[in-house]
Design brief:
about 350 residues, mainly alpha
Length: about 350
C-alpha cells in the first residue's frame, strides 16, 4: 500500500478512537442517574449502557450520520488532513474536560473540530451555512430546555398521580422502572452520538477515493456521503459501546451527585425525558448533545421539587463549558491543521 492509503486507514482508526473516547466521556450521560440512585452498581451500569449504545445503531437509521457526512462542511474542501485535524481538536478538548470532570459535549467538540479544520484550510466558505448549522446550533439551547421541561412536567404529573401511594412502594417500583429508562436513554445516546463518527468516516472515504482507487477492499470504495455501509455502523457502535464500558467516573460524580440529589423516581423521570428528546432529534437528523440533554432533564427533576434543589453554581460551570466547546475544539483543530500541513 502507498503511504497515502496507510494515512487514510490510520485516520479511520483515529475516528474509532474518538468514538471510544466519546463512550467513556459521555458514559456519565447514560449511567450517572442509575448509579447515583443505587439501582445498579457502577460495573453493572456501564455494561447495561454499553449494550444499548450498541443496539441503538441498528434501530434508528443514519439520518444524523448523513448530516455529519455532507450537511455541515463542503466535501470539496475535505481531505484526510482536515478530518485528522478535526478529530485531534475533538479528542484534545474531550480529554481536557474529562480531566476537569466537566460533562461537555463530545458531539459539539467533533462538530467544532471538523468545522475549525475546514475553515483553517479554506476559510468560512468551507461551511455549508446556514444548512444544518442552524438546527445544530439551535439545539444547544433547545435540547437542554426540552429535557428540563419534559422532566419537570413528568415529575409533577407522576407526583400528583402517585400522591396517595406509600413512598416505600413508589421507590421499589421505580427501581425496576429505572432499568428501562436507563436502557432507553442509552438507546438515545447510541442513536445520536455513534452516528456522528459514522458520518466523519464516510466523508473521509468519499473525499479520498482517488487515493483508494486501486485498494483491493471494495468496502472502502464509497462515492456517496449519504450512504453509510454496514461495517461503518457496526464499527462505530462497537467502539462507543467499549468506551462506555470503560466508564468515566469523574463526570459521573458531577452529573449524578453534585447537580441535584436523585431518587429512583427522579432518575426515571430524567432518563425518560432525555430519551424522548434524543429520539426526536435522531429522527430528524439533528446532531445534539446527550450531555446537554440529560443535564437539562436532571435539573428539571430537581426544579420540580424546589428551585433550590438544583445546585445552580455547578450548572453554571457546565453551561460555560458548553459555550466554549465548539470554539475551543475549532481553535485546537485549526492549529492542528496548520501544524499537520507544515509536517506532511
Amino acid at each position: 500500500m502507498t503511504p497515502a492509503v496507510w494515512f487514510v486507514l490510520a485516520i479511520v482508526l483515529v475516528a474509532l478512537a474518538f468514538d471510544f473516547i466519546n463512550g467513556f466521556h459521555d458514559a456519565a450521560n447514560s449511567i450517572a442517574t442509575v448509579v447515583s440512585t443505587r439501582v445498579l452498581s457502577p460495573s453493572a451500569a456501564v455494561v447495561w449502557a454499553a449494550a444499548f449504545n450498541f443496539i441503538a445503531v441498528f434501530l434508528f437509521g443514519t439520518a444524523v450520520a448523513k448530516t455529519m457526512g455532507k450537511g455541515l462542511v463542503d466535501l470539496a474542501v475535505v481531505d484526510a488532513t482536515v478530518i485528522l485535524a478535526g478529530l485531534i481538536g475533538a479528542i484534545v478538548w474531550d480529554l481536557i474536560t474529562w480531566w476537569l470532570g466537566l460533562p461537555t459535549s463530545s458531539s459539539h467538540a467533533l462538530i467544532g473540530g471538523y468545522g475549525g479544520a475546514a475553515v483553517a484550510k479554506a476559510g468560512f466558505t468551507a461551511l455549508l451555512f446556514p444548512g444544518k448549522w442552524i438546527s445544530t446550533l439551535a439545539f444547544i439551547v433547545i435540547a437542554p430546555v426540552m429535557g428540563l421541561t419534559l422532566a419537570l412536567v413528568l415529575t409533577v404529573a407522576l407526583s400528583w398521580a402517585l400522591r396517595r401511594s406509600l413512598p416505600r412502594r413508589v421507590d421499589r417500583v421505580f427501581r425496576v422502572l429505572q432499568l428501562g429508562s436507563a436502557a432507553a436513554y442509552s438507546l438515545g445516546h447510541g442513536s445520536n452520538d455513534a452516528q456522528k463518527t459514522m458520518g466523519i468516516i464516510v466523508g473521509l472515504l468519499v473525499a479520498e477515493q482517488r487515493v483508494l482507487t486501486d485498494f483491493p477492499v471494495p468496502a472502502l470504495h464509497l462515492t456517496d456521503a449519504g450512504v453509510v455501509p454496514a461495517w461503518v455502523i457496526v464499527a462505530c457502535g462497537a467502539a462507543m459501546g467499549l468506551g462506555t464500558m470503560s466508564g468515566g467516573w469523574r463526570i459521573v460524580k458531577t452529573m449524578g451527585q453534585r447537580l441535584t440529589k436523585l431518587t429512583p423516581f427522579g432518575g426515571f423521570c430524567a432518563e425518560t425525558s432525555g430519551a424522548i428528546t434524543l429520539f426526536i432529534a435522531s429522527h430528524f437528523g439533528i446532531p445534539v448533545s446527550t450531555t446537554h440533554t440529560i443535564t437539562g432533564a436532571i435539573s428539571g427533576v430537581g426544579a420540580a421539587h424546589r428551585l433550590s434543589a438544583v445546585r445552580w453554581g455547578v450548572a453554571g460551570r457546565i453551561v460555560w463549558a458548553w459555550m466554549l466547546t465548539i470554539p475551543a475544539a475549532a481553535g485546537i483543530a485549526g492549529v492542528a491543521y496548520l501544524a499537520l500541513r507544515a509536517l506532511i
